[in-house]
Amino acid sequence: MLGPVVDQASRVDPEHFGPYALAVVARSADQSQGNGVWLFQTSTGGPEDVLDVPLVPGLDAIALHNVLFSGAEFEVPFSVTLTAMRVPRRVAGRLP
Fold it and tell me: Strands 32-34 and 2-5, how do they pair?
């Protein structure tokens, strides 16, 4: 997940570079074993992944990377569902 982050160029010249850049703000674990070998991994252990992403004003982007595609088929349909949920903050170990 990419989100707005103030970078050096935006600090120096925001009129030219804009108020922020997009940078990685959340991601799944990287399971690269080297030499082009990747292990299957999601936060749920199944075909769904869940990320905890901070919601801040500005542009966001989602990048999907399928590392287990064999290349045996030219087109493999998939779908993406985005959901937002509000979770109360914990204060001293207690929910408000």
Answer: unpaired
Q: Which pTM was predicted?
A: 0.69
pLDDT of the chain along its 96 residues, tens only? 999 999 999 999 999 999 999 999 988 888 888 888 888 888 888 888 888 887 788 999 988 877 777 778 888 888 888 887 777 766 655 555
Indicate the DSSP class of residue 38: E
Instruction: Calculate the CA 18 to chain-centre distance.
Output: 22
Give Cβ neighbours of residue 29 (< 8 Å, ≥ 6 apart).
Answer: 41
Structure tokens at 7: 């970078």
**Domain residue extents for the chain:** 1-96
CA distance 50 to 65: 15
* Cα angle for residues 39, 29, 85 (degrees, 5° grid): 125
